[in-house]
Amino acid sequence: FELQRMEKDNSATQIELILVNVSSDNDDEPSCVAGLLDRLLSRVSCYESSDWCQHGRNDDSPFRCINDGIRNDVERFVRIHDKLLALAAILLKSRAFFQATDAAREANPSSILVRLPRTIHNKPYIPRKNKCKDHDDDEDDATLSISHHFPFVGAAQRKLREENSRLKIGLDIVVREPLNTRLYDTWDNYLQVFQESFHNKEWKIIRFETDPESRLHEFLLRWATKEAYTKALGVGLGFDFANFLVQFELPESCHGQLREYLWANQSESDRSPIRLRGKVAVDGLTPQDELWDFYFGSLSPDMWSWFCVAVGPVGIASCSNVQVRWTTLERLIAES
């Protein structure tokens, strides 16, 4: 068995993963979020993507400024943590739009922030050039995926938008949080709620460990795998997680456990994602099992937190690279 880490391959599909830790340079005071919003909205003009396309403004569409709408998208949340996550997600999605479309900003002298449309499953997507007005097949073109779990927000995006590429991308972030003792007495009671969301083979692997903490970690990694896969399909939680099984080829010493394998192979000196190829068997959806690549990476040495990027379906010879870059809310605002 050979560990697969990311080595730059110019012939491979390039995927960029931008990550933000919203707690790294922000406090929990309401004035913090208000100050960030004021600074952003005082220097940018916000528009719907339908008003800002490949060549700037659509001639047949009103150029509606939605700065108040962007503010509401953030301030509608009660908790400060959720406001920070929402702001970071808005900035990452706008950045992804301009990255994918190369949309010209010269048509407006001020900086531009774009709000992306959403599919019927509430997944944000980037309209194709010259197709910014209608919800069409763009919704199935999964070139972008967003995920957040405080304090992290991430955006995974194909760097080049190949028109005929079948590869879809899904991202999920999981963070180990304290047990909510008002609802659950033990971690086992918590995990039991999710048993029906897993295939029997997956649940057997989760329950293999005798240590509750180890079971929790395996559960979170398996959940991230399922979330990333269904988000790549564009359905997210709208798809029954128990209807599909993801099988990885792991060393026998790992007893099928992702937690054991990833823990043994993560490196302080090499923080590049670890790639595992998984076989996905979907009941009633695919005529045959599909191969997908799953990329895993630890988010922080100070808290148990991981990301999973699902890329697929892939052929035996298909190859992709996930390049990880960290940024901050301050930098995203400055670059908008």
From TrEMBL:
<dbReference type="GO" id="GO:0008897">
    <property type="term" value="F:holo-[acyl-carrier-protein] synthase activity"/>
</dbReference>
<feature type="domain" description="4'-phosphopantetheinyl transferase">
    <location>
        <begin position="169"/>
        <end position="248"/>
    </location>
</feature>
<dbReference type="InterPro" id="IPR037143">
    <property type="entry name" value="4-PPantetheinyl_Trfase_dom_sf"/>
</dbReference>
<dbReference type="GO" id="GO:0005829">
    <property type="term" value="C:cytosol"/>
</dbReference>
<dbReference type="InterPro" id="IPR050559">
    <property type="entry name" value="P-Pant_transferase_sf"/>
</dbReference>
<dbReference type="Pfam" id="PF01648">
    <property type="entry name" value="ACPS"/>
</dbReference>
<protein>
    <recommendedName>
        <fullName>holo-[acyl-carrier-protein] synthase</fullName>
        <ecNumber>2.7.8.7</ecNumber>
    </recommendedName>
</protein>
<keyword id="KW-0808">Transferase</keyword>
<dbReference type="GO" id="GO:0000287">
    <property type="term" value="F:magnesium ion binding"/>
</dbReference>
<dbReference type="GO" id="GO:0019878">
    <property type="term" value="P:lysine biosynthetic process via aminoadipic acid"/>
</dbReference>
<dbReference type="InterPro" id="IPR008278">
    <property type="entry name" value="4-PPantetheinyl_Trfase_dom"/>
</dbReference>
